[in-house]
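To whoever picks this up:

The nightly regression suite flagged NADH-quinone oxidoreductase subunit K as changed. Nothing in the input moved, so I suspect the structure step. Input below, exactly as stored in the fixture:
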Amino acid sequence: MISVPIEYYLVVAAVLFLIGSIGFLLRRNLLVLLMSIELMLNAVNLTLVAYNRVHPHDHAGQIFTFFVIAIAAAEAAVGLAIVLAFYRIRKTMRSDDADLLRS
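Regenerated output under the current build:
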């Protein structure tokens, strides 16, 4: 079986994180911002799992990955609830309008 070098995992994780950070910085749609955050968290998960491939007897990478997945699920649930409430009030999904929370 062919083993994939650790550098490939890290390059893919860096590209995912870069795409997520560019999406977070440049886009104004709240749902796209949440998806960009999720993409960055998945890049971190990939890095942690790659760490676990280098150190197979240390399960810290997998344990931290489970914590990050749990935090990402909570962040997605709370974030989507806030976006839905904001959309019901303002009828828009633009993050520029989020500073106008008072009516």
